[in-house]
Amino acid sequence: SQNSTDRLLASRILLALASAQFSAGENDAAVETYRSALTSARDAAGDRDPAVATALKEFSIFYFMQDRFKDAAALLECALAIKRKSSGLDDPETLGLMRELATVSGLGGSTKEAIDLLGWAIEIEQKRAPQPDVMTVRMQHDLAMALAVRGKLGEATNLMEEAKQSAEQIPKLEPSVLADVLGDLAGLYDGGSHSSESEPLMRRTILLLESEYGPIHERLVTDLKNLAFLLSRDSKNRNEVEALMRQIRDNQIKTFGIMSP
């Protein structure tokens, strides 16, 4: 009906307003506007409509950006329940919500829940898309990092290696996606029994990021620092370490305008 259409439009407008209020630092007003957007979506289509899931997801971002991970997780759980019922478990948006919920759960301290959720999502995605795809790679990466947080470095390393193999099979994959996997795999190797394999992975990570962003970009800073730290363990690498530190300095000045530690 026209009334339902108007309420859905009102919900979308309110979500945009809430985002603007948050950006302006008007957090209390943003909360009330997000709640109004939810009410409009529910009045228009009922509690189980995807429009409500959309409002819940956007509201969760507000809490996520304030490190209120448990509040964000509660909203995402509701959104996921709606998407599961309306679209099914193998819908890409449903899987995306599962990944987001796993992320905020892990950040909120519920790493076991995050691991279980990601493992389930990976199983569903691999059945839905037997050939490796970006969603699988990202979830394998996220699950590996969650396992690492739990101290399960062997399992984390094995899964990150699977993510690397998956990523390398995807044609025209964004370099930064593979770079995320290689960079964190290098970190796992450096902390385990494959430390000699860290350096080539770190170098490849930097090349991939430079191919996507150029030599000056904020994404490069952490990986350049990691490589410099690794090389600094051997005095013969002094000249290269100094060159890397200059590159780090240039990145920080040109992307942030200041020198950060």
Please supply descriptive tags for the structure shown above.
single chain; 261 residues; mainly alpha; 12 helices
How would you explain this protein's 3D organization?
By secondary structure, the chain is mainly alpha-helical. 79% of the residues lie in helices and 0% in strands. It is built from twelve helices and no strands. Helix 2 (27-45) runs antiparallel to helix 3 (50-64), helix 7 (134-149) packs parallel to helix 9 (175-190) and helix 10 packs antiparallel against helix 11 (218-231). It is globular.
Write a brief structural summary:
It is globular and about 75 Å long. The protein has helices spanning 2-23, 27-45, 50-64, 69-87, 92-107, 111-128, 134-149, 153-168, 175-190, 198-213, 218-231, 238-256. With 261 residues, it is mostly helical.
What is the percentage of strand-forming residues?
under 5%
Through-space gap between termini: 58 Å
Radius of gyration: 21 Å
General shape: globular
Ranges where pLDDT stays below 50 over 5 or more residues in a row are none
What would you call the structural class?
mainly alpha
**Multimeric state of these chains?**
single chain
The biggest beta sheet, please? Answer: none
Average of pLDDT: 91
Series of secondary-structure elements, N-terminal to C-terminal: HHHHHHHHHHHH
What fraction, in percent, of the residue positions are helical?
Answer: over 70%
Total number of helices: 12
Number of strands: 0
